[in-house]
């Protein structure tokens, strides 16, 4: 079962509902826009000064959780998941914890899938509150 730590869950839900983050699909961060997983990485960055967004030539930022750690533009590094999740997530799908949920009439298997399908941050915040 995938469960966010209560403190992280509260911060993520608040951030998604705040209106401070503009939404993007298919990458975590580009310009001033974030996907739901990019918002999670941004919260991690605020608590970990050595974490950073790296802008390669293509313009899509990659997130690096530590100076010598790997970076990725589509999913948070493992360090971010360890920081955010309670216990170990048994099911991983494309480097992201898998859990089934319904939003509207559509079934999803992970947050990025719903984000990239156009589900709003407000609805994603509801999903996180109800399922994580």
Which key features would you list for this structure?
single chain; three-stranded antiparallel sheet; three-stranded mixed sheet; 37% helix; 132 residues
Could you please describe the fold and organization of this structure?
This protein is 37% helix and 18% strand. It has helices spanning 6-18, 36-47, 78-84, 111-116, 121-131, and strands spanning 22-23, 29-30, 33-34, 52-54, 62-64, 71-72, 92-93, 96-97, 101-103, 106-108. The chain has one domain (6-131). The protein contains 5 helices and 10 strands; from the N terminus they run αβββαβββαββββαα. β9 (101-103) and β10 form a beta hairpin. The model has no long low-confidence stretch (mean pLDDT 88). The chain is of the alpha+beta class and 132 residues long.
Chain oligomer state:
single chain
* Cα gyration radius (Å): 14 Å
| Number of separate structural domains | 1
Q: Percent of residues in beta strands?
A: 15-25%
Query: Secondary-structure element order, as H and E?
Result: HEEEHEEEHEEEEHH
pLDDT < 50 stretches: none
Order of strands across the main sheet: 1-3-2
Instruction: Report the sheet with the most strands, covering strand number, pairing sense and barrel closure.
Output: 3 strands, mixed
Shape: globular
* Chain-averaged pLDDT: 88
Q: Helix proportion of residues, in percent? A: 25-40%
Count of DSSP-assigned helices: 5
Task: Please report the distance between the alpha carbons of the first and last residues.
Answer: 9 Å
Structural class: alpha+beta
Count of DSSP strands? 10
């Amino acid at each position: 079962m995938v469960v966010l730590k209560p403190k992280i869950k509260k911060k993520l839900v608040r951030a998604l509902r705040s209106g401070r983050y503009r939404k993007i699909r298919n990458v975590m961060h580009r310009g001033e826009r974030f996907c739901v997983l990019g918002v999670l990485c941004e919260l991690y960055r605020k608590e970990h000064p050595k974490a950073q967004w790296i802008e390669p030539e293509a313009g899509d930022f990659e997130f690096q959780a530590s100076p010598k750690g790997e970076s990725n533009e589509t999913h948070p590094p493992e360090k971010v998941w360890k920081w955010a999740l309670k216990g170990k997530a048994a099911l991983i799908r494309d480097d992201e914890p898998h859990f089934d949920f319904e939003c509207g009439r559509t079934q999803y298997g992970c947050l990025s899938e719903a984000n990239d399908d156009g589900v709003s941050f407000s609805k994603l915040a509801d999903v996180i509150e109800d399922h994580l």
